[in-house]
Each structure stands twice: as C-alpha cells, then as structure tokens.
Amino acid sequence: MREVLGYARFIVLFFVLSICLMVPRAFASSPPPPITYIDQWYIQWLDEASQEPVLADVMDQEHSDRWILAAGNDRLTAKPEGFNSAWIKIEVPELNWENPGIMLDVNFAQQIRIFNDGYLIYEDERNYGYETNNILLKLSPHYYNKPIYIYLKGNADASSLGIDGSVKLGDFQSMNSKYLQKNILDIILGGTLVFVSISLLICMLFVNKIYWPGWNSLCLLMLSIGVMTLTISPYLYAFFGKSSRVYYYLFDISSTFIMTWIFLFFEQIISKGTSRILKYCLRVQLVISIGSFAWLLLSVLLGGRVLHYYESIVPLIFASSVMIGNIILISVLAFYCVKRNRESIIISAGFALFALTVVSELGIYFTHKDYEMFYWKWGTLFFLFSLIVVLIRRIINNYEQMLLYSRKLEVFNNELQRSEKMEIISQLAASVAHEVRNPLQVTRGFLQLIGHRSADQKDKNYMLLAIDELDRASSIITDFLTFAKPQVEMTTILNIAEELGQIEAILSPLATIQGGELRVESNFELYVRGNSSKFKQAIINIVKNSIEALPTKGSIDIIAYQEDSTVIIRISDNGVGMEESELERLGEPYFSNKSKGTGLGLMVTFRIIEVMNGRIYFNSIKGVGTEAFVSLPIAEIQ
C-alpha cells in the first residue's frame, strides 16, 4: 500500500513540475529585437492539367496579371475549383539583421519548395495527412530586396492552400527562441505524460495485481494522450522530420485507443464491473480500435487505395465513436451523480471540461476544415487530474479499510485464543474437579473433627484457618465446574426487572458498607430466556466487581432497556477504572486486579452469558469509571 501511495505522489509531483515548466520566464530574457511583419504577397494558381513550372519561367512572369494579391489577415486563401497548386511571391525588404531569418506557417500543403534569389533553400514533401508546416529559415543578408518564391502543392480534398497569418522577418536567433517557446508546451506536456505513464506501467510489474484495476487504464490513457500531444506538435516535424511518418502513425494509433482506455477506466472504477452498458460499450470500442489499427497496418503495407480509404473513413469512425462515447459516458456519470457517488462527481468536473472541448473542437473542425484543434490538450489535464484524485481517494479508502480489517482481525485472534484457552480449562475442569472435590470434603470433615476434640485454642485457630482455605479451594472448583458445564436443563422466561430487583436487594447492603449507592432502573416488559440462579450469578459477579472498585463515595447504576430485538443491561460505576491493556484481559483465568482474586468469577460470567446466546463488552477510563454492557436476545411471551 505504501508503494501505491508513493506512485500517487509521483504522479502529482510530475504534474506540478510540468505546470511549472509551462510558465514562461519572461524576466530571464532581454526584450527581443523588432520584427518586420509582411501582410501581403502575391499568389499564382496552377490548374491540375498544367505541368509543374520551372522557377525561371515563374520569375519571367513577374509582372504578369496572373499574380493575385493576397493578405495575411484573410488567414488561408480559398483554393479555386480545379486548382491544386500555386506559386507565392513575397517581396523582401531590406534586411537589417546580422543573421536574418523568416518565419511562416503554411497549411494544407503536401509539397513545399522555397527559393531565394534562384536558390532552393527549403524543400519538404509529405504523402500523409499531417499538413501543418511551421517553417523557420535563415536568410542570407545579401539577398534583400529580392523576392522569395514558394511553390505549394496541396491535398485535393482541402478547400484552402497558402500561408496562415503574417510572414515574419527578424533576427534568426530571436525568432528561433520564440519558435521553441511556441511549441515547447506540447513537448513538456506530452513528454511528461509519456514518461510518467511508462514509469508507472513498469512499477506496476512489481506491485500486487489487486492494485492494477484503475491504474492500468489510467496509465494507458495518459500514454495515449501524451503520445498524441507530442506527435501533433510541429516541433518534431520541423527538427526531426526524417521520422515524420512515424509520428503521424503514432498519433493515429494513440487516438484510436484513447476512448477504449476511458471506457476501461469507467468500467473498473465507476461501475466496478456491474454496468452492462459500460461493458458493452467497452467491447464495441475495443473492436473499433483493433479494427482501425489493423486497417492502418494494411494501409502502411499496401498503400494506394487502402491508404486512401483509411484516411477518408477511419477519421469519421473515430469522430463518431468519440461523440457517441462522450454522450454515453456523460449519461453514466449523471446516473451515478444522482446516486451521490463522490467519485462520479469528481470525475464529472474534469470530464465535463474535457468532453466539452473535444466535442466543440470536433464540431468546429468538421464545419470548418481549416480549423486547427488545440484546446483539447488543456481539457485532458483537467480530466486526468480528476482521475488521479479518484484513484488517490480509493487508495486512501482502501488503506483505511485495511487498518479497520487489521483491528478486527486482531480482535478475532484474541477471541480465538481466549476461546481455545477456555476450551482447555473446560476440559480440564470437567475431568479433574470431581476427583479433587471429594478428597477436599473428606479432609475438611476430619479437620472439623480434630478441631472439636482439640483443647488447645491455638490448634483450633489453625484448624479453622485450614478449613477456610479448603472452602476457598472448593469455591474455586465450583467456579471451574460452572464454567465447564454452565448449561442447565431448567430454563424459563425471566423478567429482567424482577431479577434486577432481587439483585438490588442482595447487593445494596454490601454497596452501603463500601460507602456507595446502588440504583436500578428497568422496564417490566423486558424478558429473556435463561436460568434465574445462573443469570443472578453472572450479574452479581459484575456488580460486586464494581462495588469493590468504588472510592469512598461512589455510585453504581444498573439500567436495562431494549435495543431492536436485544435486551441491554448497562452496569456503570465511577470507580477506579481500567487501562486498555487490562480491558483486553478481562475474562482470562487468573487475571484479577484484586489481591486475592482469581479471575474465575468474570470467566464464569462470560461463560454463562455466552450460553444464554448473549455477549458482554466493557468500556473503561482510568480514574473515571467502568461500563459493562450485557446484551441478551429478547424472549417473546406467548
């Protein structure tokens, strides 16, 4: 359990570190040099039938009316029907920086070539679905006042093609720092989630499997979200472009399984395996995820139409499963929230933000194809944090439950040991008591006879002392016999008020002698089944102990009342009280706080009440007093 609590602290620590790393340290850097923004350029569309033109031909058409003025505040330029590629011409002003650079965002282009003064300075070609290009290039200061030509070839299904926003000119090092800051959030967030999830999955191999449910699905969910966050960032494609196809497929695989892990978590934690709806949805989602993954493998191996169908159909299936799955999960959460399930309420807070951002951005994405999804990353943080809180609460509850079970187990073991001791004493008493009592009675008789015949008073005193000790031994043997065979053939319906009244009459003088007061309060409608003499013996033993524990002035209260189908007899005093260690040993043979006590009286009392199908328990505070509770099943009067 301590290891699991350690893992929980490990997760929270990494989330705190990741959030701290996300905060930019503006005070640590000097103000960046001014940046020149270019908000206008020219674009020339090329139809699908025309061949790819040569740069020289385009440069010869510098003053052609085929060039159309485009503005950066229009975001992306709408692509005319029948046109799938274009040339863009950007007029570069004088470069006033030692290391000039240019930064631009090109979207929905699968092929990009950038020329400066007739030289190719950048080229990228992608034949997969990731079409976001954040480009940062270093320019030669000798090429200012010369236009930059950009050739773009887009996806036939895209409605736009071109530069997104303004083109920025400035110091290369300064813009490079800004470029890194822009994408570092995705790297930190995604890297943290991947590292934490993999670390926890490895740690789970060394933890008992009973702790796996919930943590396994959470780790897999964190891993999927982390991989998605990493692979959707332009940072990897810009600096590690050789593996760009791998990033694209990793994003597809992670997004395919994300809903499966969410359903698995809900099925393990919220419903605990009892919800048929979640089980059915989990199976359906698992089939969709495995099917999409298999289709992806085939498309990678075969390509062509298989890949085209994959890129056209699987995103629709994924989006539909996300929307339908979110509706189902929200309904399940609402159902459990109505039942005041705290875990559901906690998850609802995080999941509501996550589902709202995902569904909203998917809706915007399919309404406006040019939309770039971003805010879902923040929704995942709230959602994951709520899941972690639920699991930590469950760990704490399990730990508290384990402590409770440990205490109960300790009590059970003590009762078991006590029962075994009582059984041994019972067998010994039954077999030996009669054989010992007979010689004692004979010895007592001869001592009485010798005492009567003796003329010496000193000898008579010795004889009386010996007889008293024999009587004491006989009393102990009687207690052993009562403990060994407390069952009596004659049991009747006992009126508790009458029995307690007789006990009050017997023990009130003794209490008065000790300087105490005995008070009895009972309802005449309380009845139990048992033997009157044995019942009185048990209660008298308890009350006598209370009387002997009284200070100079004290009181003993005996109250009988009904609780459900049980009669409770409460015997309380304001005596010296007992420690917790002394309470645990009550009823053990030969344990007594009295100088001449044997502990057999309470042992017999426990045995008598046990035979009457009742139980006794004590509460005591040292120096305050003691309470004894005797509970017996109520008897019905026919």
Automatic annotation (TrEMBL):
Supply the InterPro entries for this chain.
HATPase_C_sf (IPR036890), HATPase_dom (IPR003594), His_kinase_dom (IPR005467), HisK_dim/P_dom (IPR003661), HisK_dim/P_sf (IPR036097), Sig_transdc_His_kin-like_C (IPR004358)
Q: Name one Pfam family in it.
A: HATPase_c
The record's catalysed reaction(s) read: ATP + protein L-histidine = ADP + protein N-phospho-L-histidine
Segments spanning the bilayer are 184-207, 219-240, 246-266, 286-307, 313-338, 345-366, 378-396
- Is Nucleus given among the entry's keywords? no
GO molecular function annotation = ATP binding; phosphorelay sensor kinase activity
Q: What is this protein called?
A: histidine kinase
Q: Which lineage do the record's taxonomy fields give for this organism?
A: Bacteria, Bacillati, Bacillota, Bacilli, Bacillales
